[in-house]
Amino acid sequence: MDSCCSSSSSRYLHPSRSLDGWFAQPDYDNIKFAEYLNGFMREYQSTLLQPKLRYTVLKEADIREHQLQCMTEVCSKLCVSRSSAIILLRHCNWNVSMLFDKWFEEEDDVRNKLGLFRKVPLVDRSAGSFTCEICFETCDAGGDLSISSNFCGHFYCIACWATYVSESISNDGVGCLSLKCPHPGCGAAVGEDLILSVLVTKLNGDADKAKHSQYLLRSYVEDSKGKRKWCPSPGCDYVVDFVGGYGTCDVSCLCSYRFCSNCPEVTVR
Ligand SMILES: [Zn+2]
Ligand SMILES: [Zn+2]
Ligand SMILES: [Zn+2]
Ligand SMILES: [Zn+2]
């Protein structure tokens, strides 16, 4: 095949020897076709050589374990808190190596974009009291009644924080994992640590905590840019994780449901 193609194309690359050969031009149409055919065959052959798409099926415990591994790696390598790691991983589709690349290339940009500000203004806690910008109650600035994001100096009373966090969990879906400071234009990140600590003070805070934890789980799938998919079978909570290879494949879930990897993404749970 190879010799056949190359000999035929080299023939067309020379001016044809016709009677009016002096003015003869290469046969461009045939050259184009030979090149097209060559390219097509090369592509076809490389498709045959490409490894097929592979997957594993994950249960909730597997996902939690994978997430924990990702977070632990990010925390130790980048020297950031678990709360920051969640925000960073979500931003990079839970792809640790992509996150490291971005971070080491443009840490400041990433921090600014996500509100993980490095220069947090010093707050004078000796002032004694302050007025919460949301409820306008006077609070004890140094006490347990006030709190701010780790990345800015805007203090609110705990009751207002709890309401703010709870509303986000009810309305923002997975977006509650990227909550920002309520101060207009601030944009500082509000991490898992603050969210969980203010929910402790709230009536039915445990329900919100459980929802938040569920969103963290969902983020691993829904923020993965299609690398992971929920099994489309109704009531099945397993996740298909495509771990390598190319093309499409037939997936067989642990629940015995079978589907095609190329089917439209199931996002509504
Ligand atoms: Zn308040
Ligand atoms: Zn702020
Ligand atoms: Zn399933
Ligand atoms: Zn399909």
Automatic annotation (TrEMBL):
Keyword annotations from UniProtKB, A to Z: Metal-binding, Repeat, Transferase, Ubl conjugation pathway, Zinc, Zinc-finger
Pathway(s) the chain acts in: Protein modification; protein ubiquitination
SUPFAM superfamilies reported in the protein's UniProt record: RING/U-box
GO molecular function, one term: ubiquitin protein ligase activity
Annotated ranges, domain RING-type: 128-269, 132-182
Key word Zinc-finger present: yes
PROSITE patterns per UniProt: TRIAD, ZF_RING_2
Reactions catalysed: [E2 ubiquitin-conjugating enzyme]-S-ubiquitinyl-L-cysteine + [acceptor protein]-L-lysine = [E2 ubiquitin-conjugating enzyme]-L-cysteine + [acceptor protein]-N(6)-ubiquitinyl-L-lysine
A biological-process GO annotation: protein ubiquitination
Keyword Transmembrane helix tagged: no
Classification via InterPro entries: ARIH1-like_UBL (IPR048962), E3_UB_ligase_RBR (IPR031127), IBR_dom (IPR002867), TRIAD_supradom (IPR044066), Znf_RING (IPR001841), Znf_RING/FYVE/PHD (IPR013083)
Source organism, top-level taxon: Eukaryota
Cofactor: Zn(2+)
Listed EC numbers: 2.3.2.31
Catalytic class of the enzyme: transferase
UniProt signal peptide: none
Stated role: Might act as an E3 ubiquitin-protein ligase, or as part of E3 complex, which accepts ubiquitin from specific E2 ubiquitin-conjugating enzymes and then transfers it to substrates.
Homology family: Belongs to the RBR family. Ariadne subfamily.
Protein name, UniProt field: RBR-type E3 ubiquitin transferase
Organism: Malus baccata (Siberian crab apple)
